[in-house]
Structures are given as C-alpha cells and as structure tokens.
Write a structure and sequence with these properties.
globular, single chain, Coagulation Factor XIII, Chain A, domain 1
C-alpha cells in the first residue's frame, strides 16, 4: 500500500526577492495564466549550485522529482548542503507548495523540520503538546491518552508547565520529537534536528523511529548527514544532488555512492616538506601485487601500503601505527611495527579476502616514545574494495560488517 507518491514535483525560487519581486513578472504570469499558457518563468532557471554564480535570477531548488514510498518504509534522504533535502521535506509536509507537480499522501503527517517548528513560545510544554496534537487532527482524548508517554520520553517533566521560550534548544527538540513520534500520524518526517540532542537522546530517537517504522508500520522520512544513523534506521534511500534525484534504492548502495563521491584522496601521499625535525613520513603509497599504484581492488586482491620515512636524526626507538577506516570513519583495524634505524621503507600487506566491499581511508602516525612526539597524517590515501560476485556474497550483494575473512573452521 502506497503511503506517499511524488509526481514530477519541482520547486523554483527567485534569488534575492520574496515572490517574483516585480510587478512586471506578476503581470506576465497572470497574462499567461488567463490564456492557458505555461508560466514563462518556468522555462528559465538553473540548478541550485551554490559554488557558481550563474546567469539566471531563478534557481530550481528541486527539479522533476518522482518516487513512490510504501507504507512502513523508513527512507533516508541524503546529499550535500544545498542539494534540496530540506525543501523536499517542506513540500512533503505541506509547509510550502511545489511550483509544478503533485504530491499524494495517504494519512496524517507529523513533521519535525527545525527546532521549535509548530511550538508557540509563550505557551507551556503541556499546552504545546495539545496544540500540536490538534494541528495533526487528533482529539483531546487521544492526546491525553498519549500525554504521559510523551512527557516521559522527552525527559522534561519538571519543566512541562513552563513556557517553552525558556527551554534550551536541547529541551525544545526533545519535547518536539516526543510529540511528533508519539502522536498517531501515518507519516513521520524528521529533518536534521536530532543533531541538537545529546548522544543518549539521539540513540533513543533512532530506536523510537525504528519502532515507529518496523513495529507500528508507519512511514518515516529521515534527513541526516550521519551516514551511520541513516544506515541503521533506513531500508531505502534517496540521494539528491543539485535538486535532482541522483539515485534511489537500497540504502547501502545509496550511502556507498554518496560517501564515495565525497571522498578526497588518491593512491599516493607525498609530504610537501619535512614535517618533523627528527623523523617524519616522506611518502605513502597504495599498490597492488604488481607494484602498480591503485585505488580499486577486488575482494580477492592483495593490498600493499608502502611507507617511506625520513629518519634525519637516526632515531633508534620509534613505531609506525596505521589505522584503516571505512567511509563512516569507523576504525576497521589497526597495525603497528617498530622502525629499524637504517631502514626507511616499510610495507603493510592486507591479505586477499579480508576487507568487504566499500571505501577505505588510511590514517597513520610515527610515535617516538622517549621524545613524546610524533608525526601524523589523517585520511591521506583512499582505496575501494569492490564486490566481484564471489561465493561469500549474501543479502543481494551486501553482508554485514567491514571484515569478511576466510577463516579456518573446525
């Protein structure tokens, strides 16, 4: 059963003005409308790329967006700042209307777009709970039945009869999320407001959204730059870029694609200068088994990371530490080796059939214990491991975890 359908929706804005901003533009639109013609200003406009100046005074915040969402789906919407994520949520929440296209929804929508949305600052927390419930179309009896559960989840019981204008931003978002999640709407829309809460509350919110989606069969739209949270909560995703859908589908595919496009780095790092007067990295390179610089490996390929060191003062006791991180900056594993005084080249070999498919970065440092100093480089080399369709592949090509080694079984 469909919960929501977006059909060719677009949203256009005029830069620097409210509305069209000029009488001539308003008259041109009106004249086109009474003649049954297309709005002349929909024929112009550029994509919403903030990094370039552009020539048109009109921009498309969203352009030709189409998707269908089934009831009970948890959908992550991801993309860079300015990609159109918040605009899309405002359209779905009916805060603003699309310039073109239609949105079909099945059921009531509860949205949490920014801190304090829908709250009256002069009213108390108690009054705002009833106000929000009424806006969502719930009866006072329904709200009263959920009231204690909302207050308990929010953790602001002591301040429930205090005007919300005196709440901190964290208290504000706690109560706002508790209201949106507990009132019985069929669709829950959550923007990046969870970034305001502390780690404990964010975890609590993710758990609640998971319960709402999987347990109660309600639909959740979730925008966040935290790919770990998106991957944990959502089954499918929408990847927006410059106001258009770049990809729509499995959340693993979506997050991998987004993170890969966001990665900076190459197969080689070369220090521009001596970074430490005693000892420092000169060069770090990622090779394949044939000693070719490489950034893409198959699951069953050997990966070689070579470190070239400048040991100017012939330091006798030092260690190289290496950490391999995945695209979510999770430490996959670390390794270390002592340095030898007359040897400046070292290789770390990652055995075949060890790392799962995904994107990886290298962080490394040289530690000199007796001097309490070290030289460090972070996220300096990038490489990918790709799925070759080997026998280990499960769940449609994606398994759990970043390590999938060939271990001995007895």
């Amino acid at each position: 059963m469909l919960a929501l359908k977006a059909e060719n929706i677009s949203k256009q804005y005029r830069l620097g003005q409210v509305g069209t901003g000029t009488l001539s533009h308003d008259l041109n639109r009106f004249w086109a409308q009474i003649r049954g013609k297309e709005d002349p200003y929909l024929k112009i406009g550029e994509s919403n790329d903030r990094t370039s100046k552009g020539e048109s005074e009109y921009v498309w915040s969203l352009r030709d967006i189409n998707f269908e969402i089934e009831q009970g789906d948890a959908v992550g919407i991801i993309g860079r700042n300015g990609a159109g994520k918040s605009t899309l949520l405002k359209l779905l929440s009916k805060v603003t209307k699309p310039t073109t296209g239609k949105i079909y929804t099945n059921g009531r929508i509860a949205s949490l777009l920014e801190v304090g949305t829908g709250f009256h600052p002069e009213m108390t927390g108690r009054e705002n709970i009833y106000l929000n419930g009424a806006i969502l179309g719930m009866t006072r009896k329904e709200i009263t039945r959920k009231f204690d559960e909302i207050v308990d989840f929010s953790g602001v019981e002591r301040y429930i009869d205090t005007p919300v204008k005196r709440y901190s931003s964290g208290m504000y978002v706690r109560l706002a999320f508790a209201v949106a999640a507990h009132l019985e709407s069929e669709i829950l829309i959550v923007d990046e407001v969870l970034a305001v809460g502390d780690a404990e509350f964010q975890k609590k919110c993710l758990g609640k959204m998971g319960d709402v989606s999987k347990g109660e069969g309600r639909t959740v739209f979730f925008v966040s730059h935290n790919m770990a949270a998106v991957s944990q909560l959502c089954q499918s995703g929408i990847y927006l870029k410059d106001g258009e859908i770049l990809q729509h589908g499995n959340i693993k595919l979506i997050t991998d694609s987004y993170l890969k496009n966001s990665q900076k780095g190459s197969a080689v790092f070369v220090a521009k200068e001596q970074r430490n007067e005693e000892i420092s990295f000169k060069k770090i390179t990622v090779f394949d088994k044939n000693h070719n610089q490489e950034t893409s490996f198959n699951y069953d390929d050997e990966i070689i990371i070579e470190f070239e060191i400048d040991n100017l003062k012939k330091i006798q006791k030092a260690n190289i530490f290496v950490t391999i991180q995945d695209a979510l900056q999770t430490r996959v594993f670390s390794a270390e080796t002592p340095l030898e005084i007359n040897k400046n080249n070292y290789q770390l070999v990652i055995e075949p059939k060890f790392l799962s498919s995904g994107s990886y970065n290298i962080t490394s440092f040289i530690h000199i214990p007796q001097l309490f100093r070290y030289d460090s480089v972070e996220n300096i080399c990038h490489f990918d491991v790709v799925d070759t369709g080997s026998s280990f592949t499960i769940h449609g090509g994606y398994h759990h975890g970043v390590v999938f080694g060939k271990f001995e079984w007895r």
